[in-house]
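For reference, the entry.
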Amino acid sequence: MNDTISLLMNHRSVRRFKSDAVTDEQLAAIVAAGQMASSSSNVQAYTVIAVTEPSLKTKLAGLAGGQAYVEQCPAFLVWCADLYRLKQVTVHHQPGQPSYEGSVENYTVATIDAALAAQNAAVAAESLGLGIVYIGGIRTKIAEVSELLRLPELVYPVFGMCIGVPDQEGSLRPRLPLSGVLHMNGYDKNQTMKAVDLYDHTSAEYLKERTGGQRSTPWSEQMAARLTEPARLQMKSFLEQKGFLKQ
């Protein structure tokens, strides 16, 4: 294990931050590190909105479901899949030609690009002694978030990211056994479910310890509850209105 792997293996989500500011230099370094992530065909189909204005963070916290750490963190980054920029350069260089910015493939590329860049940025932030937590809750009222941030057509907020100096220790949440995600030369269904059985025990013990014995629901039961509850079903119509998923 080297220093990079050690940093990655010690990732914790941070939901309480000190009042220390994230400096402009730190923010620039974090986002620049994100830019060096792999990008499909170098399209770089993402944009980052850095939110530091207190009143704007308060509004976003409310739209994200009342998550106080969105308001309290010194810097809140909104990672957006962005095909607007590509559409504009296509119109400039190929006027009158049909283009396929609304395809499912280009939506997928832009979303993956944003996620890859964000994870690079997360590691960079942690290397500077900062903590992060991803906020998928900004998709709950995604139309309102988009309007608040003035996002044009072909741009949508994939997730947010709180950044700041941690004010908590936080425990390492156990992951699925490696055998549950690493398959050799093909998918092994039996291997997958054996790993789930092992993880159910580990995750239940972790939750029991974390909640002082109040909860011990195994991972598979948590996931079943999650999958049978409708969540953000407005996403499809919103994305179509923004110009995505049209081909």
Notes: Residues 171 and 210 are 8 Å apart (CA to CA).
